[in-house]
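User: Here's a chain of 82 residues. Predict its fold as tokens.
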Amino acid sequence: MHTETLTPAVPAWQTQALCAQTGADFFFPEPGSSVREAKRICGMCEARSACLEYALAHDERFGVWGGLSEKERLHLRRPAAH
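Assistant: Prediction complete.
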């Protein structure tokens, strides 16, 4: 019997994103550390909007995605109070 291991396809934007070339340390800093450098890198990245869309769709709770921190993404997910 032949069994193949299937690995999920990596979206094209992830391989082209600047964070893939930079390293995770900037984008997943220790609690209380600055995310300024990650946001600067995100600001130059062409994949930023696709990254943010992915993070919101997959409920990513940690790190900087699409140029936004955990708290900033949480505010986007919460419905606005009237």
